[in-house]
Design a protein that fits this description.
The chain is mainly α and 310 residues long. The protein has 15 helices and 2 strands. The chain has 2 domains: 157 residues, UbiA prenyltransferase (Tetracycline Repressor, domain 2), CATH 1.10.357; 135 residues. The protein has a two-stranded antiparallel sheet with strand order 1-2. A hairpin with a 7-residue loop joins strand 1 and strand 2. Helix 3 runs antiparallel to helix 8. The chain starts with a strand and ends with a helix. One of its GO terms (cellular component) is plasma membrane. Keywords: Cell membrane, Heme biosynthesis, Membrane, Transferase, Transmembrane, Transmembrane helix.
Length: 310
């Protein structure tokens, strides 16, 4: 294993010494980047712009909390990760990091993030962050993921909470606008992950994870993907209709939403062979860009508004 060295004194068992990059990988940086962006959008919705130091501390705390969730998820799911092709190279199943180290790392980061956010901003935001970590690790990872094909639907609440955490950090309150952002991410999650689940049907089957394609079949999953996409497209336009986003956002949301629905329709129609696989892959990849684009526009517009350009 090229990414790790081992302690060997001739008597002790081989103990893996992780590379710093392995700890970074535990944080799930790509997921963290989306969490940071969506939390920043919620934070910038505050009627009174928060102090830059508050913005920095809040975003750092939320990012660390997301990383803690990722580390604890990888700790608990090490047995599943070892079976699935796409996760076998993660630090724990690959043998570069032991589970106890990952658990300790995740718990320290979780406590640090929650208490830092509480002392730096307010305890409503800290409580929401603590609930987000708890929901992702305990409710989703430990329970839902292994027990129901609705795991992604219910568990998606954890990934949808960062805008509410961000808004609460800036204001000490929860607004309808932050709830709308929560709803967009919540409804986005099933079609995004089910497109991947169709592609990784065999992987999830080997691991015994009851994803919808494995339990209810790919045809049912394709129908659900289309239904959620049809709900998501108009929902994503609400920030413009409610007045906390401009027409630029509105046009982008309408056009990208129509394309998302078209891709979901292709997934629904193409059910066999390479055409089906390509359709699912296109939807999965575009769905990532779709959510990033919407929240990036929101953040850019709010920054421009605070700076006096809008």
């Amino acid at each position: 294993m090229s990414d790790a060295s081992y302690i060997d004194d001739g008597q002790s068992p081989h103990i893996p010494v992780a590379d710093p990059s392995d700890y970074i990988r535990l944080l799930k940086p790509r997921v963290m980047s989306l969490v940071v962006l969506t939390a920043l959008a919620g934070l910038l919705l505050a009627p009174v712009p928060p102090h830059p130091l508050i913005v920095f501390t809040a975003i750092l705390s939320i990012a660390v909390g997301a990383g803690a969730s990722g580390a604890l998820n990888m700790w608990y799911d090490a047995d599943i990760d070892a079976v699935m092709t796409r996760t076998q190279t993660r630090p724990i199943p690959a043998g570069r990091l032991d589970g106890d180290s990952a658990l300790a790392f995740g718990m320290v980061l979780a406590l640090l993030s929650v208490f830092t956010l509480g002392f730096a901003t307010n305890w409503l935001a800290a409580s929401l962050l603590a609930f987000t970590i708890f929901f992702y690790v305990v409710v989703y990872t430990m329970w839902l993921k292994r027990s129901t094909p609705q795991n992604i639907v219910i568990g998606g609440a954890a990934g949808a909470l960062p805008p509410m955490v961000g808004y609460a950090a800036a204001t000490g309150d929860i607004s309808l606008a932050s709830i709308v952002l929560f709803a967009i991410i919540f409804v986005w999650t099933p079609p995004h992950f089910w497109a991947l689940a169709i592609l990784k049907h065999d992987d999830y089957g080997r691991a015994g994870v009851p994803m919808m394609p494995n339990v209810l079949g790919t045809d049912r999953t394709r129908t659900e993907i289309l239904i959620y996409s049809l709900l998501l497209a108009p929902l994503a336009v609400l920030p413009w209709l409610m007045g906390f986003a401009t027409a630029i956002y509105g046009v982008a949301a309408i056009l990208s939403g129509l394309y998302l629905v078209w891709l979901a329709a292709q997934v629904y129609r193409r059910r066999e062979g390479d055409a089906a696989r390509r359709a699912s892959l296109k939807l999965f990849l575009f769905s990532i860009s779709y959510l990033f684009m919407l929240f990036l526009i929101l953040v850019a517009e709010r920054v421009a508004h605070i700076a006096g350009y809008l």
